[in-house]
């Protein structure tokens, strides 16, 4: 199993903040956000980062109402 560099984690958190602002202003669609998060989910599924997964999933749920780790 692999872990992520701190730079990658910071970038993902920054992207979610950006998505929150853009979505609230109507500049970005929920479908696009889901597509990007699906890609991220695929990458994170191969890593040993349960706390990061939970933190990002919780933030996405509260911001967009999307469950990114539903099976």
For the terminal residues, how far apart are their CA atoms? 21 Å
Which term fits the overall shape?
A: globular
Major pleated sheet: none
Structural class: mainly alpha
Which residues form runs of ≥5 with pLDDT under 50?
none
Portion in beta strands: under 5%
**Got a strand count?**
0
Helix content: 55-70%
Order of helices and strands: HHH
Per DSSP, the total helix count is 3
Mean pLDDT: 87
Q: What Rg do the Cα atoms give?
A: 12 Å
Explain what the structure shows:
With 71 residues, the chain is an all-alpha fold. 69% of the residues lie in helices and 0% in strands. It is built from 3 helices and no strands. It has helices at residues 6-24, 30-44, 50-64. The longest helix is centred in the N-terminal third of the chain and has 19 residues, at 6-24. The chain is globular.
Structural topology:
Layout (H helix, E strand, L loop, with lengths): L5 H19 L5 H15 L5 H15 L7
Helix pairs in contact: 1-3
Please supply descriptive tags for the structure shown above:
3 helices, 71 residues, mainly alpha
How would you summarize what this structure contains?
The protein is mostly helical. The protein is built from three helices and no strands. 69% of the residues lie in helices and 0% in strands.
């Amino acid at each position: 199993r692999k872990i992520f560099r701190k730079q990658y984690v910071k970038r993902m958190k920054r992207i979610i903040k950006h998505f929150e602002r853009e979505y609230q202003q109507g500049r970005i669609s929920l479908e696009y956000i889901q597509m990007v998060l699906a890609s991220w989910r695929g990458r994170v599924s191969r890593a040993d980062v349960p706390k990061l997964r939970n933190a990002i999933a919780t933030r996405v749920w509260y911001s967009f109402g999307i469950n990114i780790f539903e099976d």
